[in-house]
Each structure stands twice: as C-alpha cells, then as structure tokens.
Amino acid sequence: MTSREPQSGTSHWSRSQRKVLALAFATAVVGWGFSVYGPAVLLGMLKDTAGWSLAGISAAISLHYLVGALLVMWLPEVHARIGLVSSIRIGIVAATIGLIAWSAAWSVYAMLPAAVLTGVGWALLGAATVNALVAPSFDRDRPKALALAFNGATLAGVIFTPLLVAANSALGQIRGYAIVALTASIVLLGLVVMLGSDLSSRDPTHSPPSMPPRLTIGELMSERRFVSLAIATCLGVFAQIGILTHLFARLVQPLGATGASLAVSMASIGVVVGRSLFAEAFQRSDRRLVGVAGFLLQIPGALALAFGSSTPVLAAGALVLGLAAGPVSSLGAVVAQSEFEARDVPRVVALVTSINQIGLAGAPLAVGLIAEVAGGYLTSYCALAAVMALGALSLLIGRESKACSGAA
Asked: Quick one: which of 189, 26, 35 has its CA closest to 118?
C-alpha cells in the first residue's frame, strides 16, 4: 500500500513521500531543461549566428514534441513492463545523447535524429512521468505536491537557459552543451539510485491490480466536462510551449543573449511564485475557475511581448507570463481528481496528457512559420493570446455542464 498524508500540509508528509517528491522534482528539472530549454536556446542562437531558417529549426523542434506525444500514449504500458525507475534511466540517456546531437548538428536536417532522441527523453521525463511519480503517494494534497514537483520544470528555465548561454560563449556550442548535459544527467542518475528504491513497492509490476475504470475512452470522448478539459489544457500547453520555445529568440535581439537568458530566468522564477499561489487556490476554490484566472492573466504578458520594444516592458511581460503560467502543467490532473471517480482519474489524466502532447507538438512550428512570414513575433504572440482566451472559455463551458449535471 502507498502511504497517504494524514492531514493537509507538507509538515505531515512522510519520509517516503518526500523522497518521491524529490525524485519527481529532479526529473522535471532535467526533462524540461533538456527537452524544452535546450532546443529553445539553440533556436535563438542559430537563427542569428548561422542564418538557418526559423521555420526549419521550429519544424525540428515540433518533430521532437511529436515523437514525445506518440510515446506518451504508450507510457502506462512502458511503466507496467519495465517500471518507472527504469524508464527514467532510459529517458536520461536518450535526452543526454539527443541534446548533444542538437548542438552538433551541421544543418537543419541533421537536427532530425537529435529531435527523435530528445523526443524519447521528453516522453520518459515529462509531465506524464512526473504525475505518475506523484499521484499514487498524494491524495488530498495532490495539487500542492504536483505544484512542488513541477517547480522542477521551472527551475530548469532558471538554471539551463543562462548556463547554456554561458557555456556556449566560454566553451563553444558542442563542448558547452556536452558538459552541461553530461553533468546534469550524472546528477539525476545518482538521485535515481538514491531515491528510487522506495518506488519498487508501488511499481505497476509489483502492485495489486486496481479497479478498472468505469468510463471507457468512447464514453469520456462524449462527456462535455472531459472534452472541455482536454481542449482547454491542450490550448494552454500549445500557447505555453509556443511562448517558451521562441521566448529566447524573441528577446535575444532587443536584449542580447545574456539579457534574454536573464529574462527567461525571471519568467521561470515568476512561475515558481505563481504556481505556489495557484496551488493554494486549487485547494480552496473551484479548480476550473482557478485555471480560467491563470489563462486570462497570461494574456497581458503575451501582448507585452508582442508589442513591447523596451527592456522594462519586455521584462514585465516575461514576468507576468511566468506568474500566471503556473497552473497549466498540473491543471488536467487536479481538475480530473475533483470531477471524476478515483478509478477513472488515471485514464482521464493519460488521455488529457496524450491530447496535450499531440497539440503542443505543432506549437513551435506554427509560431515559427507565422513569425517568418510576418517578419517578426508580433502576430505570433497576439495569436497565442487569443489561444489563451479560448482555453479559458473552454474551461467555463465545462464548468457550466458540470453545474447542469449536478442540478439534474
């Protein structure tokens, strides 16, 4: 049996729960650092220094996310066959080799094999794995635990963006990326050895069978609350990945490489603060309304990045986006927990995650194509602001259907 928190609050969490949370946090740091921020920094650098096509590099990044999306669909089977710990180890190796291959690519076409490798790493170290680590150990405090675990993804932006820029400047692109990637992977592998032992008792291969889901996939697809949640979270991660992938490239020209990396770090720090605030709100308020607030608060940040040209405006836009972006990564899991039966939650979260992964795969390419055709990021970021508004609307539609079914 998995230990459960007797009361709400981190002070009552057991040692085993804290170890699981530490591993989830570290996995998120490397997963997002290698798979989100690593390619994003290269996008900004190669667009200006090598003169490569913005749409071409964006297409390689979209392939990376598409590979991850396809693998995430089979992630529960992977975890059941080889276990969480083994899948994390494989993800570390794939992501490390892939990130080094990204930096060594001599053309856009040479990025494609690298994209496949980091796509495998993204699937095995991304949001679905973080949720699979955390969810079985936390019930009532799951929003708070997920927020803390996903702060690892945010810390990746604080650490990896300036670190990769500095390593690239001091050591050269290939050597700098290789040293950063190898160091981070060795640290995470060490943590897996130290913290992963407690997971064996709750690995799917060692756990007793749980009750089968009540709702089939077909029934979920006809449920308005599920469809509205899947659409909202898909739009949210589409906008978020579109912004994150191109944020460094958007800021590098007006702010320079160092200034752009610091702005990305500032946005990431904002996410940590915002995620903590939203986690408390998820505990106390209607979770869909909290998600709506997160979507709507991101719109001014996106518009500031679209229209801004001065350092204060661009920095403020990045910070506002960070503060409001917190709930996006855990929104599907926390809303599913509050609206569906416990035995249906794993299926709901897996389906939402798969849909999100497929949706976000096109974000880098879409933003890159629009920016290349329009000659700048103004149109792209205005479009992303509209996407956020649609995500908020979808959450509200699902809330109305939930209220109607409750009244009936």
From this structure: 35
**Which residue from 153, 223, 210, 207 is spatially nearest to 346, judged by alpha carbons?**
210
- Provide the CA 393 distance to its chain's centre, in angstroms: 22
- For 188, the token pair is 């995470």
Distance CA 144, CA 130 (A): 13
CB of 395 closer than 8 Å to CB of 219: no
Q: For residue 79, give the nearest of 344, 331, 349 by alpha carbon.
A: 349
- One digit per residue, the tens of pLDDT, for the chain of length 408 reads 344 444 445 557 777 788 888 888 989 988 888 888 888 887 877 766 666 778 888 888 889 988 988 888 778 778 888 888 889 999 999 989 988 888 888 888 888 999 999 999 988 998 888 888 887 787 777 778 887 888 888 788 788 888 888 888 888 777 888 888 888 888 888 888 777 666 655 544 444 445 666 777 778 888 888 899 999 999 988 998 888 888 888 898 888 888 888 888 888 788 778 777 777 777 777 888 888 888 998 899 999 999 988 889 998 898 888 888 777 777 887 888 888 887 788 778 878 877 887 888 888 888 888 988 888 889 999 999 999 999 999 999 887 555 544 444
**How far apart are the C-alpha atoms of 31 and 174, rounded to whole Å?**
20
Alpha-carbon distance 198 to 223, whole Å? 37
Helices 111-125 and 38-49: angle between axes, nearest 10 degrees: 160
Q: How far apart are CA 66 and CA 136, in angstroms?
A: 27
Distance CA 365, CA 56 (A): 8
Q: Which residue has the tokens 């308005």?
A: 224
Name the 3-class secondary structure at 257: helix
What is this structure's pTM?
Answer: 0.74
Cβ atoms of residues 169 and 257 within 8 Å? yes
CA 367 to CA 58: how far, in whole Å? 8
DSSP-H helix ranges across 172-223: 173-195, 217-221
Residues ≥6 apart with Cβ < 8 Å to 302: 239, 243, 317, 321, 381, 382, 384, 385, 388
What count of residues does the chain have? 408
8 A C-beta contact, residue 137 and residue 13: no
Residue of 247, 201, 223 whose CA lies nearest to 47: 247
